[in-house]
C-alpha cells in the first residue's frame, strides 16, 4: 500500500541540519499554551492540531472564539486565512500524481500540506522517482504533523512556565525558518521574483486590507513574476 | 464561550481542508510542464513570501510588542548565520529565539 522505504526516507526529513522540527515545535508549543488559556482540555488541543494542522488557521480560530464569533464567521475567517493552501496544493500535487498510485493517497495526504512540509518537499522531490514521490511525501507529512501534535501537548503542559519573553522568542523562530527556506528556494527567475515581490507587495496591501493583503499581494506578485519569467526563459 | 469547542475545531478543520481538497481536484487536470502549473507555482511562492513578510512586519500576538528595529536586526543576523553555516537551519532558528528573548528582557 505504502512503500515503507520511501515513507521512512521522507520521515527522516525531521533529522539533520535542514530539520523543520525546531521551528515547528516552537510555534505549536505556543499554540498549546494559547489553547490552554482559552479553556481547551489537553484532548481538545491535540484534536485541534490533529485535524487542522495549519498555524494561522488555529490562531484565527482562537481569536474568533475570544470575541465570541458565530460558527459561520469562524468558518469564513479560517477559510480566508488558509486559502493560500489552494495554490500551494496546485503547485505541489502535479509533481506527485502518478497513474500507478491510488487516488485516496492524494486526498488523504493533502492534509499534510503546510508551509514547512511543502517547502521540504519542493526542495527534495527531484531526487525521488515520480512513482514513489507520494509515499515520500506521506513520510514527510507524518513526521512534521507528529512534531506539531507533540509540541502542542508540550505547550499545553508547560504553559505555566512560559513567560512573555519566552513566548516572544518562540514567535520569531517560525518566520526565521520560513525566511531561510524561501531564500534557498530562489533558484529560478520566476521563484526569485515571486518571493521578492511577494515580500514587498504583500505588506503594502496591508494598508488597504489586513485580511486580504496576503492573497491580493500574493496574486499580483506571483502573476507579475510569472509573466516576467516566461518572457525571460523562466 | 458561546460555541462548543469540539464543534469549533471541526468547523476550523473543514475550512482548512477545503482549500487542500480543491487544490487536489484542480491538480488532477494540470500537468507539471504546463504554463498553468508554473503560474500556480509563482502564486504559491509569492503568497508564502507575503505571509512571512506579514508575520515579521505586522505580527499578531506577542511579537507585536517587540520594536520593528529589533525584529529586523534579528532577521538580518539570522540570515547571515544561515549563509555562514552553509544553510544550516538549526543555528539561525535557535539563535533568533534566544537573542530575541534576551533583547526583550534586557531592553
Tell me what the structure shows:
- With 234 residues, chain A is mainly α.
- Chain A has two domains: 4-174, no CATH class; 186-234, no CATH class.
- In chain A, 73% of the residues lie in helices and 0% in strands.
- Chain A contains 13 helices and no strands.
- In chain A, helix 3 runs antiparallel to helix 10 (133-158).
- Chain B has 107 residues and is mainly alpha-helical.
- Chain B has three domains: 1-30; 32-60; 66-107, no CATH class.
- Chain B has four helices and no strands.
- In chain B, helix 3 packs antiparallel against helix 4 (90-106).
- The mean pLDDT of chain B is 92.
- Classes of the chains: A mainly alpha (234), B mainly alpha (107).
Strand content of chain A: under 5%
Strand runs of chain B, count: 0
Uncertain regions spanning at least 5 consecutive residues of chain A: none
| Overall average pLDDT of chain A | 94
Oligomeric form: heterodimer
| Class by SSE composition of chain B | mainly alpha
Largest sheet composition of chain A: none
Mean pLDDT value of chain B: 92
> How many strand segments of chain A?
0
| Envelope shape of chain A | globular
* Poorly predicted ranges of chain B: none
Strand content of chain B: under 5%
Q: Domain count of chain B, please report it.
A: 3
Order of helices and strands of chain B: HHHH
DSSP helix fraction of chain A: over 70%
> What is the number of helices of chain B?
4
Tell me about the largest β-sheet of chain B.
none
Rg on CA atoms of chain A, Å: 18 Å
Q: Residue share in helices of chain B?
A: over 70%
Instruction: Specify the structural class of chain A.
Output: mainly alpha
Number of domains of chain A: 2
Amino acid at each position: 500500500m505504502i512503500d515503507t522505504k520511501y515513507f521512512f526516507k521522507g520521515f527522516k526529513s525531521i533529522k539533520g541540519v535542514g530539520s523543520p522540527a525546531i521551528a515547528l515545535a516552537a510555534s505549536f508549543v505556543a499554540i498549546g499554551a494559547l489553547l490552554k488559556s482559552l479553556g481547551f482540555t489537553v484532548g481538545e488541543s491535540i484534536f485541534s492540531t490533529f485535524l487542522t494542522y495549519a498555524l494561522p488557521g488555529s490562531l484565527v480560530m482562537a481569536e474568533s472564539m475570544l470575541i465570541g464569533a458565530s460558527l459561520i464567521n469562524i468558518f469564513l475567517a479560517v477559510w480566508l486565512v488558509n486559502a493560500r493552501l489552494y495554490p500551494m496544493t496546485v503547485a505541489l500535487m502535479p509533481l506527485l500524481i502518478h497513474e500507478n498510485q491510488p487516488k485516496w493517497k492524494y486526498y488523504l495526504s493533502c492534509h499534510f500540506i503546510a508551509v514547512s512540509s511543502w517547502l521540504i518537499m519542493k526542495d527534495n522531490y527531484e531526487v525521488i522517482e515520480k512513482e514513489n514521490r507520494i509515499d515520500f511525501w506521506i513520510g514527510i507529512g507524518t513526521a512534521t504533523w507528529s512534531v506539531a501534535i507533540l509540541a502542542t501537548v508540550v505547550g499545553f503542559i508547560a504553559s505555566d512556565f512560559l513567560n512573555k519573553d519566552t513566548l516572544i522568542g518562540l514567535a520569531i523562530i517560525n518566520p526565521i525558518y520560513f525566511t531561510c527556506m524561501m531564500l534557498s528556494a530562489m533558484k529560478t527567475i520566476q521563484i526569485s521574483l515571486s518571493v521578492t515581490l511577494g515580500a514587498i507587495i504583500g505588506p503594502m496591501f496591508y494598508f488597504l486590507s489586513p485580511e486580504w493583503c496576503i492573497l491580493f499581494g500574493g496574486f499580483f506578485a506571483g502573476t507579475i513574476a510569472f509573466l516576467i519569467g516566461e518572457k525571460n526563459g523562466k | 464561550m458561546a460555541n462548543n469547542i469540539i464543534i469549533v475545531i471541526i468547523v476550523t478543520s473543514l475550512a482548512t481542508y477545503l482549500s487542500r481538497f480543491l487544490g487536489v481536484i484542480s491538480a488532477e487536470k494540470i500537468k507539471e510542464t504546463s504554463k498553468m502549473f508554473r503560474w500556480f507555482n509563482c502564486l504559491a511562492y509569492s503568497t508564502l513570501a507575503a505571509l512571512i513578510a506579514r508575520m515579521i512586519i505586522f505580527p499578531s500576538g506577542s511579537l507585536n510588542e517587540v520594536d520593528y528595529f529589533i525584529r529586523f536586526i534579528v532577521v538580518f543576523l539570522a540570515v547571515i548565520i544561515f549563509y555562514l553555516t552553509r544553510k544550516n537551519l538549526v543555528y539561525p532558528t535557535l539563535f533568533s529565539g534566544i537573542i530575541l528573548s534576551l533583547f526583550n528582557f534586557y531592553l
